[in-house]
Amino acid sequence: MTREVQQVDFSFVLASSVHDMKNSLGMLINTLADVMVQYPPQNNQHAKSYAVLEYEAARINSELIQLLSLYRLDHDQARVHIDECIVVDVLSEQIARNYTLLQTRELELVLQCDDSLTGYFDSDLVGGVINNILVNAARYSKQKLILFAQHTAEGLCIGIEDDGPGYPEDMLNASTFAEARTNFTSGRPHLGLMFANKVALMHRNKSQQGFIRLTNDSSLGGGCFTLYLP
Question: For residues 99 and 93, what is the distance between their CA atoms, to the nearest angstrom?
Fold first, then answer.
């Protein structure tokens, strides 16, 4: 008698585990926020410790969300929902999500976006991209960040500038951030940029397609991430 062995879909198991971890981490982040309110830092060392906890929790949560989103996009479980959006509302939402992080790291964030600026895109996906880049920029920035949006000849441009050390050469030289560009041996798979690139490419308008761009010509002297949507 032969016994049929059922093959385990490891990607599904992993996605399910990521979903559970994301929910648990969300509860942890909320609890941490409550603790920080109830027990404010008494000195600079306490403030730095809170800042590290806040940043690392936000970063892991962001990466778990991206992993789950990439899985759903690759398995056709997610669709792009294009709608007319008020850009400043989407950006303000991401700032609010990271308010505590910015405060504990003593970072000034300047929002440059006309209140009447609109665009056609998936607000959840684009919001996720901006949130991730904002969290990472907060890690490397010294004092200030600029979050901006404007219409350009290449489409709607949403960007983040920082006053940190800038992007490394290997990231600037990469023409795309598809799966083939990951570098797990160096411990830097650039998951956030993979996600951003995928989201950008999913936005199309006739012959135009979205894209991302990384430079070190920030007006603040650091790196600049820009997302272009047709």
Answer: 10
pLDDT of residue 186 exceeding 50, the answer is no
What is 90-142 written as a DSSP string?
HHHHHHHHTHHHHHHTT-EEEEE--TT-EEEE-HHHHHHHHHHHHHHHHHH-S
Q: What is the pLDDT of residue 1?
A: 47
Q: Could you tell me what percent of the chain has a pLDDT over 90?
A: 39
As to burial, measured by CB atoms within 10 angstroms (0-12 exposed, 13-18 middle, 19+ buried), residue 12 is exposed
The pLDDT of residue 15 is 66
The dihedral built from the CA positions of residue 136, 215, 189 and 20, taken in this order, carries a sign that is positive
Q: Is residue 199 pLDDT above 80, yes or no?
A: yes
Burial of 147 (0-12, 13-18, 19+ CB in 10 A): buried
